[in-house]
Amino acid sequence: MRKLCVVLLASLSLLPAAAFAERGSSGDGSLVVSGANARLTVSGHGLIFGHLDRGSITVVGDYKPDDNTALSSVSGARMKLAGDNVVYVGSNVRFLFPGGRYTLIVDGTGIDISAVGTGKVTALGKGTIDDGFVSVDGGPPESVDVVGTVAYGRNAIGTTTATATTTAGKAKNG
Hints:
By secondary structure, the chain is an alpha+beta fold.
């Protein structure tokens, strides 16, 4: 009887871990942007949310939620339509896209973004002394000015390119 109780208790302790593992995909990664003064293009699948002190968020094409309960939310901004895109402009803007496929162009100051899933980000700093930082998949933060384009999540290893570095350098010097 004692052995049965120990086995049952051990099984019960493993259930939450198994449930959590089932919910997440093995290819999910993370993106963290901190204090960025930049133009960021983020394309991905999964959850993304954030804040910007001042600027704009352009939703390129349609946000494609995974299901009808995944409704996006943007506060602190006025909305306008620009062709097939939706543009939000304001200050102290907060946004949430809870699950689905998205392409966002976030252009402004004081940008903080968190994303979980898979995707890529292209960063171009504004040329200030501190244009902020980007970290992917739990790695060390890198300056927005040297990130260029980097993928996060599935197949993210070895996809960093420094294409935006020279452009950002020209913006600072020119």
